[in-house]
Amino acid sequence: MASFREKVYLTVRRIPRGRVAAYAAVAREAGRPRAFRAVGNILNANPTIKNIGISKYRSVKVPCHRVVRSDGRVGGYVYGTKAKTKLLRSEGIKITGNRVDPKNILSVISK
DNA sequence: CTAATGACCATTA
DNA sequence: ATAATGGCCATTA
Q1: A26, A34, A33, A14: which is closest to A69 by C-alpha?
Q2: Which nucleotide is nearest to A3 (CA to C1')?
């Protein structure tokens, strides 16, 4: 059985380059619409950053930098919001101030 | 089992 | 525009 955490990783993996999604959208997609806060905690233990010991997810890459706040603010990141912003810009996402261009925000995460 | 922890959200002041 | 507040909840210690 897939834990919520695993579903979150799989969901985030579906966010394409040059696009972002809100924590709330990820929570919804993973089946727990109100667990958006837990999503942040889960991504904080992103297997891209550190191995969490689940063999299934070893060496997989989860683009957790593509998950932003609902209001468009960039949000947190292990290596800092600055690094997150830089990464997103490098993928072609427009960010003015601390806000990503709403056009880049996915409301539904398709496969 | 209980309690703490937040990369959040929405509302209010 | 910013700051505080209450709510939310999977995971972990």
Answers
A1: A26
A2: C10
Give the dihedral of Cα atoms A24, A33, A30, A94; nearest 10 deg. Answer: -10
What DSSP letter does each residue of A57-98 carry, written as one string? GTT----GGGEE-TTSB----TT-HHHHHHHHHHTT--EETT
49-68 on A, CB < 7 Å from strand B: 49, 64-65, 67
Take residue A56 and report the two structure tokens written for it: 């299934």
> pLDDT digits over A15-53, tens only?
999 999 999 999 999 999 999 999 999 999 887 665 555
CB atoms within 10 A of CB A23: 22
Residue pair A39/A23 in contact (Cβ under 8 Å)? The answer is yes
